[in-house]
Amino acid sequence: PGVGRVSMVLPSGDSFVGTGRAVYINVYDLDERVAGLNSVLANVGIGGAYHAGVEVHGEEYVYSQWSQGKNAPGIQKHLPRCHDVHRFRTSVFLGWTPHSRPEVLKIIEQLGKVWTCGSYDLLTRNCCHFCENLCLCLGVGPVPSKIKSLANAIESIEANRRLLEASMARQ
After folding, report:
1. With 168 labelled, which of 92, 110, 138, 151 sits at a CA distance of 20 to 30 A?
2. Is 129 a catalytic site residue?
3. What pLDDT does 84 receive?
């Protein structure tokens, strides 16, 4: 898809026009160069290197380490499907939240206490992990596995490397 083009994926395959209680995960390529790699990786079932945000009530919530201060909340809000660094790829409909706008804002406030800038980790606690946590809080389930699959594969390799190193250190 081109920049700014929204492809909505619904379970029924229908087009979507709905209310503010619809929840989407908006997926971005990290940049123009990564977009080509992500397309190749997606075609072979590996997923890709993505940035993601959750859209609900007309706002998009993202998590990053690029805020002020280590203990500052890493959650930011911006216009849906618009990012100043990452390239919009697609939007996936996840379901309907029972939560009103004030309830969602309270959830974001609570998550901001644990999703701080200083707790960001590229492989184990990134924007995609935040999206999954927020989507679970909103009652729409986990994000599609393909969005986190590359990070999960790399983390699995890294975990095995650490185990091997620890095993070799004991010998």
Report:
1. 151
2. no
3. 85
